[in-house]
């Protein structure tokens, strides 16, 4: 039953995703990509459990690497997206004709 | 309420924040705030996970987290805006391999490997592996560590089919018998699993190698989608709904971008992935010859000085020449001179979706001036001067006129409809797709040869003097 319930969540999320993302304007496609990329770093949650429950060499290596890569994805992705979005601004009135 | 339920409630909150965050990306005004909300969601999900009952120690978490945070933060800070496609490719790859490793470690622990767990494990390894190596190749091509040409070799399709078969068979075996030894032999099933990991990586390489530099926007979008699907698969592995929700969001986003990109190139995804485009078409006979009319910076200035409306059409060449700042300066000078200046941006200009917009935003161009192809084309005939900076295929009238052209049918910016067209170009070499561009020979076209940044600096100096 749980499997069915997870499929149910998957389907609803895909529909929501299509609805939301088709409204993003072309000018923001690069930040959308890097931002959604950061969201896909959510696999960090799985990595944390893997690393935190590891009790032998192989699982420790796998878990720690998973945490590291997922963190690169999350931290790097959000920071770089923020850096880009900070540049998208409208010039204030009177500022341009200087 | 027990801890487990509490954690799950936080996950729901995190998923909600991701969704609101993406919704706020629909306008440049709220986008930054949206990204902030999304990162808050991530923080909540991570903190909640630390209370998960299976976690017995934190030392390795801390090691991995610190290493990843330092690498991620430094690369996000130092990367140049022109190198953004490479950066996104690398982040993508990290996400992919993380999902692969999560799947692997669950397989290694080996508790309750029923099909509803093993199938997602196999998928997260497969998609994660393809994402990882595919992104590395995309990175190598974009950063020119590897040349951007499509690499095709004989028997490539057969090899691909063979690899898919191996993956399918290995996958089915692992579902039927996740552990123990291979039927009637001493070979441990673990080796079959390792084979799956390795062959997934090989598939990623083979998938991206035949794709040319100009098709990279599509590949990056597709890999982005894959990294989401890999996360969703990892969500099924550990029965975690927040992974599924966010993975699906990202998967959908990548698929939409892939569709937009393919449509903007008038080609199907299959054609882009499997045709090795660009390697075969350059033989097309160049019938539409004519005389190329060069122009000097001084004469170009005189025309721009008298123009009432100007449209600037940037392409990847602007990024290569790092010309975005001088372009903005030129635009401001022309505006001061009473000229209306707009930027026309083709969906596949640059090496990733929205690449040009980010560069121009970096150079402080108002985002209202960045116009989409469909907005600008109707007013193109009323434009005095169209300045094409380092763009080629996206303004190629052959897409409209020449039925034999490999890009026939691709929507283009109708630069040639403007009264005068300036093309800033290094030389007469054809673009990445290797296709002749009749725009260069048109009656109203003037070629301004040389480095784009240098030419524009010349124009800026003329305006200032």
Describe it for me?
Chain A contains four helices and no strands. Chain A is mainly alpha-helical and 98 residues long. Chain A has a domain at 30-87. Chain A is flat. The N and C termini of chain A lie far apart (66 Å). In chain B, helix 4 runs antiparallel to helix 5 and helix 13 (324-336) runs parallel beside helix 17 (452-464). Chain B has 17 helices and six strands. Chain B has 465 residues and is α/β, with parallel strands linked by helices. Mean pLDDT of chain B is 90; it is low at 278-287. Classes of the chains: A mainly alpha (98), B alpha/beta (465).
Rounded to the nearest angstrom, the radius of gyration of chain B is: 25 Å
SSE order of chain B, one letter for each helix or strand: HHHHHHHHHHHEHHEHEHEHEEH
Number of helices of chain B: 17
Number of domains of chain B: 3
Mean pLDDT of chain B: 90
Q: What is the number of strand segments of chain A?
A: 0
The main pleated sheet of chain B reads as: 6 strands, parallel
Q: How does the overall form of chain B come out from the CA principal axes?
A: elongated
Average pLDDT score of chain A: 89
Q: Kindly state the percentage of residues in helix of chain A.
A: over 70%
Distance between the termini of chain A: 66 Å
Task: State the order of secondary-structure elements of chain A, H for helix, E for strand.
Answer: HHHH
Sheet-strand content of chain B, in percent, reads 5-15%
